[in-house]
Amino acid sequence: MPQRIKAPKQVPSFEYELFEGDPDLLRTVVATPTQTAPWIDPSSLKLKHRIGRGPFGDIWLATHHQSGFDFQEYHEVAVKMLHPLKQEHMQKFIDKFEKLFLKCRELPGVCWLHGVSVVNGKISIAMRFYEGSVGDQMAQSKGGKLSLPDILRYGSQLAKGLIQLHSIGLLVLNMKPSNFLISDHDQLVLGDFGIPYLLLGIPLSDSDMALRLGTPNYMAPEQWDPEVRGPLSLETDVWGFGCSVVEMLTGVQPWFGKSSEEIYHSVVVRKEKPHVPSGLPPAVEHVINGCFEYDLRNRPLVSDLLLVFESSQHAIHGDGGWVGLGSRPIKEKSVGNGYTTWYLSKDHLQVGDTVRSRSPLNARRPHTVDVREGTIVGLDGDADKNSFALVKVPGMHNALRVQESTLERVTFGFAAGDWVRLKQETNTHSPVGILHAVQRDGAVSVGFLGLETLWVGKAYQLQMAEPYYVGQFVRLKPNVVTPRFEWPRKSGGTWCSGRISEILPNGCLVVEFPGRFVLGNEPNSFLADPNEVESVSFDTCPGIVEKYHHVEDFHWAVRPLAIAFGLFTAMKLTISMGRGI
User: Fold this and answer.
1) Domain Protein kinase spans what residues (predicted)?
2) Tally of domains in the chain
3) What are the backbone dihedrals phi and psi of residue 542, each rounded to the nearest 5 degrees, phi first?
4) HSE toward the beta carbon, residue 384, CA cutoff 13 A
5) Which of 22-36, 233-247, 307-321, 355-369 has the lowest mean pLDDT?
6) Which domain, by its residues, includes 432?
7) For residue 12, is the peptide bond before it cis, meaning its omega torsion is within 30 degrees of 0?
8) Same domain, yes or no, for 123 and 271?
9) Domain end call among 293, 328, 343
10) Pairing relation of β-strands 132-133 and 180-182?
């Protein structure tokens, strides 16, 4: 198998004349260029013994022999040997690795990569061997936890490494203390450069999605089934960052002692979050709590984590206590309408931007708004305080002074959070999704049901779609015969109508059916593709019978109450008529 993998071409050695002072005595030198291709000849790797095991494979200590015309080198390396893949999938992984190899080597906060090979029929990634990790330090510490100064220092270094890796388009998706390696200079480097991300789209022999996309104890809700509950994004690693810091603080792994299935039910079904210990500097406690926002859009960016951890280092005493963190106020978790300040801080308004009043998150847009659409002509305030914008609205003589947090930027007719539809539909995923970002140059990123990651394109490829909101009643469209997800039917065989209880960041709808009477563990909550449903309301019901059927959708008790009321009325009428006779 190894010889059938297409190995990248190696750059050959070259000769040059070396001038050493005498032009008549030039010396010919044969040089070997610096390694630019990631491929390693399997014969140059000598495995010693296994030193670890993870969800994607085993880790071996090995020796990497590098040689050229002018040198012989032996390096002690760690080799991550992945679980077996089919040959065509092995080549796909190696092609992905090759595109990112040199970029990763330029990142000081990420482990140094030697290259990739195929050993014993398995993809093997060779990287510099580091003597220890944050996990090792925790195991040697009292109570299994680190001091606050060490946590802030390592957290800052971890955030820097994450920012570097995200800058080349990679996600880690496997954040945990054992993957945070410590260099000889006591600097933290990321030991996993995004193997789960490179494995996206590649079937594994183990069909367990949880194992494929990370270590369950540190996984964000969207990691468990990203095509349905996604998309995976930069903020997915932020959840893993928070879990890792909580473990450093407490010495206890999040969800310790629970199986993968139990963790799934805790995180995804019951929406439970790791417990953040009290007594931390307020800014640190606040940002770590923000890491566990269920909607990934409401989590802080890694740059927010870096800012808080770096600034907090200067406020820590030698005994672990802290002083006030200056005049910078602690942001409240939410500013209303379902948004956190972390969400709002991801887009900074500028003079000249077109804006409108911000719509509530996953809720019906109010009929009356302060600013339907206008242009910013001035800004007042700073990022640390309540900032205001001066907005010129057509038809009004004076500019309005409006709080920035209540405004959203409109670019090419779109704003983040809008429901959008692809003009050119595809069979690979739902054509209806939620806009996550629109840049001033028209670049957009959208969450679509059926895609594991954000769709990236241009604004001209999109059009506005019908919005959905929590509390809205929906039913399957008449032309939908086989829906993407299971959907309940009424006794007569027609589709039930249900009420939206939750909207996921990719537009996937969670629909409950209060009009159904269920017993025991029978499910009454179902998922729905927004492209397959339509809104139901009294206005859309054409006749009195249809309107009554919609009343039944509100609660299963409506029909028996109506029947009982009808029987009672009939009985009263019969008695009344009998007395009259």
Assistant:
1) 45-317
2) 4
3) -70, -35
4) 5
5) 22-36
6) 349-464
7) no
8) no
9) 343
10) antiparallel
Location of structure tokens 């200590």? 61
Please give the torsion angle defined by the CA atoms of residues 292, 267, 214 and 276, in that order, rounded to the nearest 10 degrees. Answer: 40
pLDDT at 3: 44
248: part of which helix (H) or strand (E)?
A: helix 234-250
Distance CA 197, CA 84 (A): 17
pLDDT in tens, 294-324: 999 999 999 999 999 999 987 776 555 555 4
C-alpha dist (Å) from residue 347 to 93, 301, 357, 415: 35, 11, 15, 11
**413 and 504 part of one domain:** no
Inside any domain, residue 569: no
Going by C-beta distance under 8 Å and a sequence separation of 6 or more, which residues neighbour residue 490?
496
Greatest mean pLDDT range, 4-8, 266-270, 425-429, 543-547: 266-270
Q: Is residue 576 part of a domain?
A: no
CA distance 379 to 385: 13
pLDDT in tens, 401-427: 999 999 999 999 999 999 999 999 888
Q: What is the mean pLDDT of the chain?
A: 85
User: Average pLDDT, stretch 353-357?
Assistant: 95
Tell me, yes or no, whether 385 and 363 share the same domain.
yes
Question: Angle at which helices 234-250 and 282-290 pack, to 10 degrees?
Answer: 130
Please state, in angstroms and rounded to a whole number, the distance separating the CA atoms of residues 18 and 9: 27
Number of H helices, E strands in the chain: 13, 27
Helix (H) or strand (E) holding 551: helix 544-552
Residue 87 is assigned to a structural domain of this protein: yes
Q: How confident is the model over 134-191, as pLDDT tens digits? A: 999 999 999 999 999 999 999 999 999 999 999 999 999 999 999 999 998 899 999 9
Same domain, 122 and 194: no
Would you call 163 helix, strand, or coil by DSSP?
Answer: helix
pTM here? 0.86
Condensed to tens digits (0 to 9), the pLDDT of residues 482-541 reads 999 999 988 777 888 899 999 999 999 999 998 777 777 778 899 999 999 999 886 777
Q: β-pairing, 388-392 with 400-403?
A: antiparallel
pLDDT in tens, 232-251: 999 999 999 999 999 999 99
Question: Are 224 and 181 found together in one domain?
Answer: yes
**Relative orientation angle of helices 148-167 and 234-250, to the nearest 10 degrees:** 160
DSSP structure string for 427-484: SSS-SEEEEEEE-TTSEEEEEETT-SB-EEEEGGGEEE-----TT-EEEE-TT-SS-S
**Pair (189, 328) in one structural domain:** yes
Q: What is the dihedral of CA 244, 248, 251, 255, to 10 degrees?
A: -20
Structure tokens at 570: 């009939």
Domain end among 436, 464, 492:
464
Q: Are residues 149 and 125 in the same domain?
A: no
Q: Say whether both 323 and 433 belong to one domain.
A: no
Domain of residue 41, CATH code: 3.30.200.20
